[in-house]
Design brief:
Rossmann fold, alpha/beta, single chain, 26% helix, 32% strand
């Protein structure tokens, strides 16, 4: 089984420079995470953009949609910023016959303490095991993007 991974940026790929939280969205971190985890299944990574999800436009979401729709691989993982992940996920619901999993992190993968490693691992498993559909995988849970939300106060995703 092969997994196609698209990256869009977001906190998972952020690089912080100082105590004022000045940051840039850097190169995708997922390849390094999978290498460090000694992953042995076939996968490929394609960066679609390097943006904070709050800066994503409808044109960016269309780019993600079109890339996923055109991809011959049936199992897709997308790393994405958490602030607008649900919007992008809802826009992918029209794509049939593919298992599409979106994940991200609340802390950058480059930090020593980050949820990125766990979220990516859980999302990789989910993308291989779930039936066709669109899912958001965060905090050790699988969410339906139509019936979930990001709870900013608790720093997690939850069902409605």
């Amino acid at each position: 089984m092969k997994l196609k991974i698209f990256t869009t940026g977001g906190t998972i790929d952020k690089i912080y420079f100082d105590a004022k939280n000045d940051y840039q969205v850097g190169e995708p971190e997922i390849g390094a995470l999978l290498f460090e985890a000694n992953v042995t299944f076939a996968y490929s990574v394609e960066s679609l953009m390097q943006k904070d999800s709050l800066d994503m436009t409808e044109a960016d979401r269309k780019l993600v949609h079109d890339a996923v729709a055109a991809e011959p691989c049936a199992r897709i993982l997308i790393t994405h910023g958490t602030d607008t992940m649900l919007e992008t996920a809802k826009g992918l619901l029209t794509i049939p016959d593919k298992t599409i999993v979106l994940t991200g992190s609340m802390q950058p993968a480059r930090l020593r303490v980050s949820d990125a490693f766990f979220n990516v691992g859980y999302a990789v498993a989910a993308a291989q095991l779930l039936s066709p559909g669109v899912y958001v995988v965060m905090n050790g849970q699988v969410f339906d993007p139509r019936t979930s939300r990001k709870n900013v106060a608790k720093n997690c995703f939850e069902g409605l």
